[in-house]
Write a structure and sequence with these properties.
4 copies of one chain form a homotetramer.
Chain A (H helix, E strand, L loop, with lengths): L16 E10 L2 H4 L6 H6 L13 E6 L10 E5 L7 H9 L2 E8 L15 E3 L2 E9 L2 H10 L14 H11 L6 H18 L6 E8 L4 E7 L8 E2 L3 H7 L14 E4 L11 E2 L4 E6 L2 E6 L12
Helix pairs in contact in A: 4-5, 4-6, 5-6
InterPro entries (chains A, B, C, D): EgtC-like, Gamma-glu_amide_hydrolase, GATase_2_dom, Ntn_hydrolases_N
Keywords (chains A, B, C, D): Glutamine amidotransferase
Pfam family, one (chains A, B, C, D): GATase_4
Chain lengths: ~300, ~300, ~300, ~300
């Protein structure tokens, strides 16, 4: 619950909402603005969310439909609430994209600034997080000092999520995203232990490189926030039987969401705890992620 | 209910929250940030409000404690949500003021811009509104053309509230606030009738000149949003018996609010429908406002 | 010269810079960010400009490369200076567009808000202005009241330029852009005369519908700000002989600018005073515009 | 010179302008908005400045005239250019303050965010910087890791200046500002040497605690940007002989500026290189600061 304290500050650690799409080029507004529980609608009122309002900025990252060979994805960040942003509306209605990520933020505290908005980008990689690192205040100095010195100056915000992204990059995200994010989360858990934080990791995570989308669900306490994705397109069409604009969805369209975009029973598949869903042109599959308690890594 | 439509636009007419203080010089943060249901807390979650979130900008206007003879009140407007605004926090913690007005906005629609934030100012006068002019889209051209041509260029926003303020100024607000706002609202009702709008006026209104505070409650349908004010200081102290900082309130402190600032039963007095509360150093009194049913021009 | 007065207010009427492109789909950053005197470079330092800094917001409007049948152009407006806007950089680097317009603003005065940023949009039409309506303060009430009542509620900003656009729409811009803008400017001149303003019109104007681009240069005093456009692509290639990225320009690429984008002599063709340049796929031609003193129209 | 590169990024390290006041309570607008070369005028055009435009945000910090015992100074930060900020105008016209600091920023690069705006605050201390740490990109990880771990989480921006402030706090700024800033600058020079940076320190620095104002001028190369302050009030009155509002200045009024506020010869006293000016109620004096050439660690 977002509960301003007596000083008016938001003291509680709170969370966000995110959405990622992979498939045939699509106007992002179809998912971000135009569904029953679109991400922008969720920014005002989130049925499953830990807090009602996700109004502390937003971000949208997209891979272009016809990229130049060395193209990086575009990012649009804003500290305004998503629900009244005219630029976001125009942008997501005018472009098409075969892979995009969007995020609405409910900040655990100031500062509200564009450098704290998801998704975060490094070269052609994007990263988003819904959740938090418990005790980040205590751990951040250690965590950031573990980031590769060549990457360190690229950390420009104050969030736990951005530091986690740079730890994962340090541990090889661009070579093996699943192993690297796993090592990064284990490193956070070890660092937390040193500082007396018992359950430092909580969340769902999206990683994308323009071809593949990885959607992770993991928490130290094995009780993570919700994560869903749509299945192959027949199910998706079944989901939205009466919506004419569904014709724009292609055969490979898949969407990953922190909350379902509509109330149709069975329309969205739950990603289980301690699991990563891997989605690309060929379809999707689930893999265990940090699920073996014995297999805890101890990165240097 | 704030309900983004299929296009993501907020279509419904929605409302705001406001607060006004008159009395001994006070740090405004005492009322804006630091009470149980402070205005900033209400911006995230409004118990009595028509909508949950008042996140579409805010405004704060204050008369300085030691004004220069020709001093106009200061205004701080922002399109950001009030709940995370560090500048508002610092400003209201650092200054003192014998009369201030604050407003959090839930916009009926774009544009979200500082010129649409309350309070509005003309010379030493401030004005705020919680409510709306139904059918303003149809009436605005007629209403604005009725504004005194010398005042017309000062209208810089797009809200119904600002136009209403300039109508009231045209009708003599600076000479007789009660009569002038009454004439302005009647003019809106007449204009609505021409355009087939049956109940054009809805709301509560605050007017201040630095010495006196007028708080109005009136709607064409005689079913206005809530309005309350605190009584003399003994009641106020009774309201907050356990709050040490109440010591900062002086004998003449009075606060007018669209929602009570705490849950203490009886702490706040309701301003009845079709009534204006007049508050100044000498105390307060209520007067009927547009209350004569015979004189009503056009409500359905 | 932008000269803050003793009160710190910018009192002088000042001007802006703009750029428009028509041709094969292009990454807009090629012209907006990447040339010697790109629009963003001009926002900090404008060699031919009336003022050094164009830092009071900017706008970018673009027609998508693969529009849906009923597509309107996208718009990105911001009140920040263009030179440090990361979102503008990402957007113009990631998309392509066969026709786009960009504008950096040096405001004659507050308010600085997105609704005062060019280009302005109505359905599939875009409009930009570099210049001003002298005495707009005196004329604005008359000018706005002459706007078609059905269009009136769409005026959401405070600029002379937006009001001029809605006058031109009222006079038939969508049917005959040249005649309609001519009538609108004549109407401004007549209105100015009534208010004792001797030379009310000053500027260059861009109008676009997604297929054709009209670039006007006209002032009451026949001494308008500069306007240029590039010729057919052979000249354009001659202009940038050493720039490898010129390979991205297609055979039909044309750019209209308030200032040349480089110092190459002869690279840009001057649009003469009282002239409109019409640019589309087939090439370009110039026509006289309000050039016949006898032919002054008197719209109702 | 602010020179956007081919990518549109501002590559050159650039500088800022600042102003600090100590004396009888004063409306800050008198110095920030209302003089011939006021700080806001300098934000658009800076006669002595290294760059023309200081439009990348601003900050204003003030100690209240009647502070509560534990009062911290207020801060107003904005990423907008100072020259059109209505909130700054209202704030500095409405309050009075016996000590205030103001800063306009010309950023060496993104991000432009409030957490990168000066002055920086820790408890009752304020800090501003005009200049830069050369090679900060290389040094920042080492510099930040040298900050006291209990202070580390308070670093929320990305600037060299903020890191320098926290180093000075680590080295005892609150006990001995002159010694502590000296140690911090020496530490930066040592760190620069390790990274092959020959002249890492450049700038002028303001430190305030609400009672005393310290204004430093020091660079590794002994060639710092300009710094001036006004003398006792008789000189100040002599400076502005025709300005009626000078009557508001009290006997103890002193202002420190990176550029003189008017063109009157002799009105402002230069603070010499490697010197700190100490200003309080009793007057002012100069002390050498890092002036011992033998002790210089690393300049070229």
């Amino acid at each position: 619950m977002v509960e301003p304290s007596g000083t008016g500050r938001v003291e509680e650690v709170v969370m966000c909402r995110w959405l990622a799409y992979s498939g045939e080029p699509l106007r992002p507004a179809e998912l971000i603005l135009d569904t029953q529980h679109s991400l922008v609608a969720q920014s005002l009122n989130s049925p499953l969310g830990a807090e009602t309002v996700n109004g502390d900025g937003f971000g949208f990252g997209w891979y272009p439909t016809d990229p130049s060979p060395d193209a990086v994805p575009g990012i649009f960040h804003s500290i305004e609430p998503a629900w009244h942003n005219e630029n976001l509306r125009d942008l997501t209605n005018t472009i098409t994209s075969p892979m995009f990520l969007a995020h609405v933020r409910a900040a655990a505290g100031p500062p509200i600034q564009q450098t704290n908005c998801h998704p975060f980008r490094h070269e052609n990689w994007l990263f988003m997080h819904n959740g938090f690192l418990e005790g980040f205040h205590l751990m951040q100095r250690d965590l950031r000092y573990a980031v590769d010195p060549s990457l360190y100056p690229s950390i420009v915000g104050t969030t736990d999520s951005e530091t986690l992204f740079y730890l994962a990059l340090t541990f090889g995200l661009q070579d093996d995203p699943i192993a690297a994010l796993g090592r990064a989360l284990r490193f956070v858990e070890e660092t937390g232990e040193k500082h007396g934080v018992s359950a430092p990791v909580q969340g769902t995570y999206a990683v994308a490189d323009g071809k593949t989308l990885w959607a992770f669900r993991y928490s130290t306490s094995h009780h993570s926030r919700t994560l869903f994705h749509s299945a192959a397109i027949p199910e998706l069409r079944e989901m939205f039987p009466d919506v004419e604009r569904l014709e724009v969805f292609g055969e490979h369209a898949k969407v990953v969401v922190s909350e379902p975009l509509n109330d149709t029973p069975g329309a969205f598949i739950t990603v289980p705890e301690s699991t990563v869903a891997v989605l690309d042109e060929s379809g999707y599959h689930h893999e265990p992620f940090l699920a073996d308690a014995e297999a805890v890594l101890t990165p240097a």
